[in-house]
Amino acid sequence: MDQCSLQFVKNQQDKCSFVQNYCKNEEFINFIQLYYCDMNENIILLIILSFFVTIFAFHLLSSTAEKYLSPSLSKISDFLGFSQTLAGVTLLALGNGAADLFTAVIAGGSQDSEGIYIAIGSVFGAGLFVNTIIFGRVINQSNQIRAVKHIFLRDIGFYTLGTFIIIVYTLIGFVNYAMAFGFIGIYIMQLNNLFFLVKRFIKKYIAFYNIFHNIFLRFRFITVVFFQEWQNKFNNCKFQSFVDEKELQYEQYQQGFQIIQPSEDIFSEFNGCDEPFKTSFKRKSISNKFNQNYINLKQKIKSTFTRFDLQWTEMVWWQKLYFIYELPINFIRDMVILKTEGDKWNKWQAIFICFTSPLFILCYTENIQSQIYDIHIAIVSLIFSFCLSITVWKFTHLSKTPNNIFFFSLLGFVNSVIFISTAAQILVDFLKLIQLITNINKAYLGMTFLAFGNSLGDFFTNPQLAKMGFGIMALSGCFAGQVFISYIGFGIALIFKTQKQKYNNSFNFSKKIQAWYTYKALQWIECQINI
Questions:
Q1: Of 33, 38, 35, 7, whose CA–CA distance to 21 is shortest?
Q2: Residue 53: how many CB atoms within 10 A of its CB?
Q3: Closest C-alpha to 491, from 499, 479, 480, 503
Q4: Is the model's pTM score more than 0.70?
Q5: pLDDT tens digits, residue range 61-77?
Q6: Residue 478 half-sphere exposure, CB side, CA atoms within 13 Å?
Q7: DSSP secondary-structure letter at 504?
Q8: What angle do the packed helices 490-499 and 115-128 form, to 10 degrees?
Q9: Which of 37, 189, 516, 530 could form a disulfide with 16 if both were Cys (CB 3.0 to 4.6 A apart)?
Q10: Structural contact between residues 199 and 285, judged by C-beta atoms closer than 8 angstroms
Q11: CB within 8 A of 292, min separation 6: which ones?
Q12: What is the tens place of the pLDDT at every residue in 382-415?
């Protein structure tokens, strides 16, 4: 029986010494010792600590994933030559669901014997919250949604299948390596199914005009930026009047978040286009662009809410407080992660990061003093960084992004994972303190506290996307992201947890938790059926 529980702690004379001896499962910060030894069980201080810890951790999770991890993954997928479909359902899905994914993995792979229950609770809770509350808000904010029936049935079907498998695992009472890897294998089955559907889709709709028209009917929204890329191909089309109309609509949208309602048949204006243009489409899946647009739009919506491009004197008081709070966090991240998208390239920052980013990784992994053949790794890192910095200084433009920045994208990915993992670990450690004090089931805390906190970004941005005309995009973000988190995040957590059992390579579910999870899973399935 775990001695680090409220039942044992409250009966101790010296609670501080007791938790120092028996409550050592924390990976990053031991909040239990902090509360009992340094804060003297002061509830007021605990409330203040709870407020700042949750805001800091959830903000670090979401902002790092959106501003740093997702752009790096997009560049990596381009360099590796991933197909658009493969990138959309793997790397970009990872960028969009990084907060939930790493929280589940860290909770499930922690030294705490019941950490896996936090992981299960967070996965179920996030799915319940996103696919009920957020899903309902998206539908409410959308004027009209034309969904593709078989795509939504596929996502819901795979998600429900994962829920049934977890029920089976809990009823069996244990999980081994084969069962853990099999859980991830189901996601690979979904990828194969998706590739088959995309291949069939491209064969059926090879003409550019038909595919482009299909994309437009799904997204119901057109920006001037997209059409200006193709304006040189519309020499024989009635295009300029259309661009002027959309520029006016886009300006109105930027000023007040007004809903843009494009015409029903926009391609009637392009009847004068010649056939070679209509058939010049390069056949690609739209999944990568779809997911990247989804992430970029979420960033734009959040930046519109904060509007930190304003001058200091024009900010209201809460914007000033948020700016002051975010300034040191952004400064630290910008010292080790280079923003590679758009026009954010900075030559001198890149030279500086050539040194700081590898050293930051060595410090985090505690290898800064390690040696290889009596040579310090830090010295090797500095030599490599010096050569790389000379290359950047000699062959790159001051503000124009180079064509090949794979190495910086890779460093950005690794360091983004470090920041996200740290924030997730802080949340899990703090959750253990809350569970000890309140004696609430860990799975219930994961289903509420972690799940709702990680889903707050989607709670605000997805309905706003629907209001702007991106109803299908918002709905797909609700389901596809949760499928990825459930199979990959929880699957990796199962593997880590199984690996920690040194004898039979399996771990057991308690009888009490079996009944609890079965009940909650059936509740979740009932919600899916109602949807």
A1: 33
A2: 17
A3: 499
A4: no
A5: 888 877 888 788 778 87
A6: 30
A7: T
A8: 170
A9: 37
A10: no
A11: 70, 74, 92
A12: 999 999 999 989 888 887 878 778 888 888 888 9
Angle at 198 between CA 192 and CA 199, to 5 degrees: 90
Contact 483, 187 (CB under 8 A): yes
Structure tokens at 99: 């907060």
The hierarchical CATH code for the domain 27-206+283-319+444-530 is: 1.20.1420.30
Nearest to 233 by CA among 270, 188, 180: 270
* CB distance 116 to 446 below 8 Å: no
DSSP per position, 230-289: TGGG-TTSS-HHHHHHHHHHHHHHHHH-PPP---S-GGGGGTT--HHHHT------SHHH
Q: Which two tokens stand for residue 474?
A: 């918002």
Distance CA 271, CA 12 (A): 83
Distant-in-sequence, close-in-space partners of 398: CB < 8 Å, separation ≥ 6: 346, 347
The backbone torsions φ and ψ at residue 439, rounded to the nearest 5 degrees and listed phi first, read 65, 25
Q: What is the residue whose two structure tokens read 């670990």?
A: 425
Q: For tokens 């101790």, what's the residue?
A: 12
Torsion, CA 198, CA 200, CA 202, CA 203, rounded to 10: 170
Q: For the chain, which residues make up each domain, given as ranges?
A: 27-206+283-319+444-530
Neighbours of 289 (CB within 10 A): 16
Return the top range by mean pLDDT from 185-194, 289-298, 317-326: 317-326
Please count the residues of the chain.
531
Of 89, 192, 135, the residue nearest 472 (C-alpha): 135
- Residue pair 119/485 in contact (Cβ under 8 Å)? The answer is no
Beta carbons of 414 and 361 less than 8 angstroms apart: yes
Coil vs helix vs strand at 505: coil
Tokens 């797909």 found at: 476
Tokens 């204006």 belong to 269
